[in-house]
Amino acid sequence: MKQFKYILVLVASFFLLSSYSNKHEYYVSVTKLEYVKAQKSLQIISQIFIDDFEKLIRERYDENITLAIEEESEMVDVYIEKYLKYKLDIKVNTKDRDFNFIGKEYKDDIVYCYLEIENVEDIKTLEIKNEVLFDIYPKQQNILRTKVKGKDKSFILIPENNKAVLNFD
After folding, report:
1. Number of compact structural domains in the chain
2. Residue 7 lies inside a defined structural domain of this protein
3. Could you list the mean pLDDT of each consecutive 10-residue stretch along the chain, which spans 169 residues?
């Protein structure tokens, strides 16, 4: 019996250690959109794994970039903004709207990107296309959470279905 326990602990340890690494099996981002009527703005937070975003920036823009270090390149914000503007498309009341890149911060292994669309009087329809990281991870899923007019809605966007359309009339 003692030998069985030893083998069981050894096997369990092997699986735990072999599954631990900086890589993760799932490719997911979360983007939250909230309409703040008092400020007439659509506030957006996009959460992306640092290692995935770093890989993308290295492949697309600069192979020497490293994210989340003390002396990070000044170009990181430029690359992040450029990429997000290319991969996030937001329409308010059927009109394309550009967002402002407010900035980013790192928490644990995630980069939080803060975006805002200003001068939004009212939202009748909202269309969001999110293709973030689809170009390097075919199994990427982008979770979309919205809070508009007191209604919370969530969607999972995948490469084959990359758009959500909401009506608030």
Report:
1. 1
2. no
3. 39 36 74 97 98 96 95 96 98 97 97 98 96 95 96 95 92
